[in-house]
Specification:
Blueprint lengths: L1 E3 L2 E11 L20 E3 L8 E6 L5 E8 L9 E6 H7 L7 E8 L11 E11 L2 H13 L6 E7 L2 E13 H11 L7 E4 L2
Parallel strand pairs: 2-6, 3-5
Antiparallel strand pairs: 1-2, 2-7, 3-6, 4-5, 4-7, 8-10, 8-11, 9-10
């Protein structure tokens, strides 16, 4: 995350999601419409508007955040685009593209160097709820007393995501991730709803 003239800027990979999610509920409660100009982001508040530039071909699209993700390859992928946004950017055929995202307008809680809000560190995902609950209880007992277990449907399989927290800002969550990454190397930060 960087700040340019008070705005949020991030570079990384964009992926997209389409038909198999079309009509399902998004993280903010809307119904996902693959033909709308929307996207999923792990940390930005719902409703945030972003200018997305495909750094490989120069094409630009504007999207609104209404979902959480990407959960695949979170150290490289920064945004999941709707099919419509991917098509406008020319990323629908290759599937991935290097992009720069820039905020359009103010972002609630963004100070230029941090974002206030409720953040968690996802440390694992389990196919058995009891395993997720055991880990959540252990994390709660070790000081992460607001740890939660979130249900997720991935390709028709139910997973239980364990998210340690809650942290009052992105920077605090990043510090928490550093502590947790010793035991959970794939840990990543995600915003609450």
């Amino acid at each position: 995350m960087t700040s340019v003239e008070g705005g949020f800027v991030e570079e990384g990979l964009a992926s997209w999601y389409g038909l198999k999610f079309h009509g399902r509920r998004t993280a903010n409660g809307e119904t996902y419409d693959m033909y709308a100009m929307t996207a999923a982001h792990r940390i930005l508040p719902m409703g945030t508007r972003l200018r997305v530039e495909n750094l490989e071909n120069g094409r630009v699209a504007e999207v609104r955040i209404n979902d959480r993700g990407p959960f695949v390859d979170p150290d490289k992928r920064i945004i999941d685009l709707s099919f419509a946004a991917a098509r406008e950017l020319g990323t629908d055929k290759p599937g991935l593209a290097r992009v720069r995202i820039t905020s359009v307008g103010a972002i609630e809680g963004f100070t230029g160097t941090d974002i206030a809000g409720n953040f968690y560190v996802q440390v694992g995902a389990f196919s058995m709820k009891s395993n997720a609950e055991r880990l959540a209880a252990r994390l709660s007992a070790s000081g992460f007393d607001k740890t939660r277990v979130e249900e997720a449907d991935v390709d028709g399989t139910t997973f239980w995501r364990v998210q340690a927290g809650v942290f009052p800002s992105l920077n605090a969550a990043e510090e928490g991730k550093e502590r947790l990454a010793r035991e959970f190397p794939g840990a990543f930060v995600i915003a609450g709803r």
